[in-house]
Amino acid sequence: MIRHIVLFKIKDEYKDELPQLVRNFYSMKGKIEGMTDLEAGADVYHSERSYDLALITTFDTMDAFLAYQTHPVHMPVKKRMHEVREASVACDFEC
Questions:
Q1: In CATH, what number is assigned to the domain containing residue 38?
Q2: What pLDDT is recorded for position 60?
Q3: Boundaries of domain holding 21
């Protein structure tokens, strides 16, 4: 299995959209073959090192993870995140 974790810093002018951005992530759940789990949420601690949003997804195989990158369900969510993010970091590992 592959676990994909992404943390996002959101531009100030889009911070009021955080609940909608989380809903956008959850809109993918159950719609992408090979994605076995999805969790997402907005930061509640707000420390100086905190990121604003987290997305954690799990895939059956590396092939499923790679297919997710260009999956039609993922593409509009990915596009929106590119518009609203200030920065992001990711880690992908086998579990």
A1: 3.30.70.100
A2: 98
A3: 2-94
DSSP output for the chain: -EEEEEEEEEPGGGGGGHHHHHHHHHTTTTSSTTEEEEEEEE-SS--TT--SEEEEEEESSHHHHHHHTT-TTHHHHHHHHHHHEEEEEEEEEE-
Where the chain has pLDDT below 70, the residues are: none
**Each residue's pLDDT tens digit, 37-62:** 999 999 999 999 999 999 999 999 99
CB contact at 8 A, 6 and 89: yes
pLDDT at 16: 98
